[in-house]
Amino acid sequence: MTDNIIKLTRNNIQKLTPYQSARRIGGKHGTIWLNANESPISVSFKSKKQSFNRYPECQPNNLISAYAGYVDLSCQQVLVTRGADEGIELLIKAFCEPGKDAIIYCPPTYDMYRINAQIAGVKIKEIPTLKNTWQLDLLNLELNLNEVKLIYVCNPNNPTSSIILKKDLLLLLKITLGKSLVVIDEAYIEFSPKESMTCFLKDHPNLVILRTLSKAFALAGIRCGFVLAEKKIIETLNKVISPYPISTPVIDIALQSLQKDYIKLMQNRVLDSNSNRVWLVDQLNQISCVEKVFESNANYVLVKFFMYERIFQILWNKGIILRNQNEKVNLKKCIRISIGTRLESLELIKELKKFSKNNIY
Within 10 A of 27 (CB to CB), how many other CB atoms are there? Predict the structure, then answer.
């Protein structure tokens, strides 16, 4: 009987491997979580709302106004979503015909661009970034624009933490004008704010930017994100978004986080995280089991290890949970490490030094 029910599932879903989120593969195991690029510091909020019997607004005006003020855009250029993930999904829903249109994504990068397209039955064109620089392969991108409606670019990129050159992004916007939307995922942009493309929205109608409160704002648990784009794109996305995507408590907390004092606190946390990152990179570079530490521009660092499998498992067994990237394009023997507190980083370094002392490469 169960087999008969499974047969009712769409073919593409039967074949789908779901996204392996940090919680799916890390669960509640461990005492030091450095696998999800979350803020290691919690921010306390008290709900100001006490009644929940009414549905919230589909697009709460006060929250949109607050975020528009934060990014210096008009309210008509902002859509609020359930994390940046819903923005990825909505764009595919709104702009891609299943079985006809395609998206481009540039691995190694965030897998949900590809997985959302697979779920929707939309074709996928994989154009890896250049191996030695992590920059866009603009020549191959231009040669593969046929049927492509959306190009997803993560900047800073997850998991490499690299930055895409602005001149390349602007050239990509130029060669795709009238053909495709360029979707720049700026989930980690607060850690490298000068790299944001928001100031180019007014001159590039095919530019879409994704944002979130999950990372620098330390609010991964409330699932609140934003799509920034020209008015017509926002209106289109409003046609396909669910009736009540953002709950009343989320609206309440998100609004508080966008007050001037909380934004200043967020910026101070970013400075602290960036300082811890510099310290961690310096320490990693002195450890013999480390083959290479890649330049980082966000709240995580990509590291190539000798004997990476043993290192990953030993740390896991000790409750230090990292993110294995070995299966991704051009990331053999690589592990991604979120920037934790200084104490968490010290514990990680202590265990890596112990491992190096007991092993010869």
Answer: 9
Helix axes 248-257, 61-71, angle to 10 degrees: 30
The string of pLDDT tens digits covering residues 118-133 is 999 999 999 999 998 9
CA separation for the pair 230, 206 (Å, rounded): 8
Q: List the alpha helices (DSSP H) in 181-259.
A: 231-240, 248-257
CATH 3.40.640.10 matches 61-261: yes
- Three-state secondary structure string covering 80-137: EECHHHHHHHHHHHHHCCCCCCEEEECCCCCCHHHHHHHHHCCEEEECCCCCCCCCCC
Write down the architecture of domain 2-39+262-356 according to CATH: Alpha-Beta Complex (3.90)
pTM for this model (two decimals): 0.95
Domain segments of the chain as ranges: 2-39+262-356, 61-261
d(CA 229, CA 201): 7
Mean pLDDT rounded to a whole number for the chain? 94
Q: Contact, 207 vs 198, CB < 8 A?
A: no
Please, what sign has the CA dihedral across residues 23, 26, 29, 30?
negative
Q: How far apart are CA 175 and CA 197, in angstroms?
A: 17
Is residue 236 exposed (0-12), middle (13-18) or buried (19+ Cβ within 10 Å)?
Answer: middle
